[in-house]
Structures are given as C-alpha cells and as structure tokens.
Specification:
Length: 155
Amino acid sequence: MRRFTFALSTLCIAFQFSCSQNSSQEADAVSSAETEEVFKHHDAQNAPMAANQETFEAEMHEDGLEKELVCMVNNAFMGKKQFPVEFGDKMYYGCCEMCVNTIQNDRDVRYAKDPLTGKEVDKSQAFIAPEPGHPYGGVLYFESKENYEKYSKKS
C-alpha cells in the first residue's frame, strides 16, 4: 500500500510540474516572432485563470472566447496567450511543451463534441465558451454561436 501511495504521489507531482517547465525544445515546436515573445513570458504559473482568482470570469466576444487564451489540451481558459501550434492549415493552442507535442501527435485532442448536438467539432474552428459552473476555467466547444446560445438557454 505504501508503494502504491508513493507511486501515485510521484505521478501526481510529475504531472503537476510538467506544464510549468520550459525547455529549449519548446522554442523548436513553434516558430514565429510572436511565439518567441509568448515563450519568454510564459514561465509564470501555467494554471488556469480561475485558479488564480476568486471567481472565473472570461470576456466573451462575438466569436466566443479568444482561442489564443485557451489551452486546447486541458480545455481551460488560461487568461493569457498560449503557445500557437500550427497543424495542417489550422491553429491550435497549448500551455506548455507537453501540450504542444500532444496537439501535434494526438488527433483526439484537436477535436471535441458539441455539447448541444454531440457532433465532432474541430477546436480550431469552434465557438469556445466558458463551461457554466466550472470552478477552474473549463471551456466547451460548439459548432456555432447559435448552438452555444441554444445550449445556454437549456442550462
């Protein structure tokens, strides 16, 4: 039992710090000058915005939440620019090297289900909105603004 507890604790600690570690490989994952600027300032806490505030508030725009402020692997509004990850002709965003690599290598991470229709939605094309009642900045991905509005009325 002690070995199991130790192993579980070790895994939790490793996971917790994996998104907050920067390395030279991160700079290789993306290439624009703007991206380099994001990397320079991204060594601060990578926790979702709500973890640093008493309440979760994200500014909604006509097109939903700003995609560049959402980690599309953790499905969380982070409140600051994330690392852009170009895949094909689309742009995704991740909060750390691990997320960048996951976006590049795992198709499932690039897609979500519209909570209203159950249809698969490409996160780079989705209308992104805060998940109601989620304490840590969780987000939902919708096929359209109309689907978001219908979902909001149901909730």
